[in-house]
User: What shape does this take?
Amino acid sequence: MLERREPALTADAPFAWIPGAIGRETAAAMDGLLEKTMAPHLSPLSDAIPPESITGQTRNYQERLRKVARLRTAYLERRGKAWAAADRIGLFAMMRSPGFRQFAEAVAGRRLDPKLGVQVLRYAPGDYQGPHTDHHPENPRAKDGYVDVHLSLPSAAVADQFLVYARDGHFSEMVNVAAPGGIAVYRLPFWHYTTPLRAKRGQAAVARRWVILGTFLYAK
Ligand SMILES: [Fe+2]
Assistant: This one.
């Protein structure tokens, strides 16, 4: 993985998708392990479209939509049962290894802080994230940008799920992030959204996409 040298991300090209970065068998094993150990520790994360976004609208073409999403996540910020389960399967050891940071630095083209945040997400059929920027202007360390790295681990029953992002002010770019074992690197903030996960015909019950997410601040 370290030998791979993608072009560094820029404000104009803030997103890199590296398909097949994790071998197919390894990715399937990771999906199985996450399903067994982390699924019991997931909590629903659901922010729906507020009805007032229509009923409270008084002027034409003045609609506003805050970030909406539906998926499940395991909270790993504090030491609890989810944290212990993630630690037991080596999730933090993998994400906080120097090799993983060097990979992220090579793609992002920036030195990154070794103390990254780790999250786990799981999308089921119909789960998605609406348009948002991931801009954190109130956080002094993140306000000038930061880097997210997503390990994408869909089950074989997933048909597709797209990451759509803005280039030159338009949502013109689209990547199927449900290809197995792909790694996505984001130089945030920029506008993006994740389309509803779609299952292959008749396989909705076993369609899911796990995402292991590392958030790197820039090195001081
Ligand atoms: Fe995002």
The two ends are 25 Å apart (CA to CA).
